[in-house]
């Protein structure tokens, strides 16, 4: 099992699916799995049931996939590392942190990919920056490999990950 962690819009879905096909493995995006299982979109789930209920379900799904022990590549939700329980679950797994500077993230969130994100769409740039800073310690602590993505394209990031994993 291989997990990708990182802030919203850091490239987990893009890089994860490319990495999975390069490795000839299955790919699973845990945000998509959440929506498949609950039959409700994440923004609507947040609206109806709130963040705590979202985090409970997110944890349950992470626990299930870890117990399944498949060989897939998993893209986690950006806030998956917030819960201590999830950080413990990820302990012992191969976890890749896609580290992207905040300015790049912010640019992507506001221009490139305006997918509705409950925590990004209603938050100011300053608040998002604090959230980004607050989470750094958790992304760092759960990850076995940190990839400084900077301005690399997804092919280059996949290549770097493969190099890291071969060590
Ligand atoms: N290396 C990259 N260089 C430039 N743009 C990228 C790169 N990786 C991803 N992107 C773009 O950034 C946006 C966010 O990427 P992606 O959806 O893969 O991130 P994510 O971490 O899965 O985000 P989230 O799950 O929060 O939606 C997309 O528009 C994607 O095309
Ligand atoms: O950063 C976050 O807390 C989130 C990121 C998304 O991937 C989703 O999991 C959800 O919108 C919460
Ligand atoms: Mg994603």
Automatic annotation (TrEMBL):
It comes from Vagococcus proximus. This is Shikimate kinase. Belongs to the shikimate kinase family. CDD domains: SK. Its main location: cytoplasm. It catalyses: shikimate + ATP = 3-phosphoshikimate + ADP + H(+). PANTHER family: SHIKIMATE KINASE, SHIKIMATE KINASE 1, CHLOROPLASTIC. It is an enzyme of class 2 (transferase). Catalyzes the specific phosphorylation of the 3-hydroxyl group of shikimic acid using ATP as a cosubstrate. The gene is aroK. Keywords: Amino-acid biosynthesis, Aromatic amino acid biosynthesis, ATP-binding, Cytoplasm, Kinase, Magnesium, Metal-binding, Nucleotide-binding, Transferase. Coiled coil: none annotated. The keyword Nucleotidyltransferase does not apply. Its cofactor is Mg(2+).
């Amino acid at each position: 099992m291989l997990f990708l962690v990182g802030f919203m819009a850091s490239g987990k879905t893009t890089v994860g699916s490319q990495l999975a096909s390069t490795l000839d493995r299955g790919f699973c995006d845990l945000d998509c799995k959440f929506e498949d299982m609950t039959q409700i979109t994440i923004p609507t789930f947040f609206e109806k049931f709130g963040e705590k209920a979202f985090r409970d379900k997110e944890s349950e799904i992470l626990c299930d996939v870890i117990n399944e022990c498949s060989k897939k590549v998993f893209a986690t939700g950006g806030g998956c590392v917030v819960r201590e329980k999830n950080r413990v679950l990820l302990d012992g797994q191969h976890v890749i942190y896609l580290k992207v500077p905040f300015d790049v993230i912010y640019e992507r969130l506001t221009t490139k990919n305006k997918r509705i994100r409950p925590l990004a769409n209603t938050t100011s740039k300053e608040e998002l920056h604090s959230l980004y800073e607050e989470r750094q310690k958790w992304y760092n602590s759960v990850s076995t490999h940190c990839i400084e993505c900077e301005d690399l394209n997804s092919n280059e990031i996949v290549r770097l990950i493969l190099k890291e994993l071969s060590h």
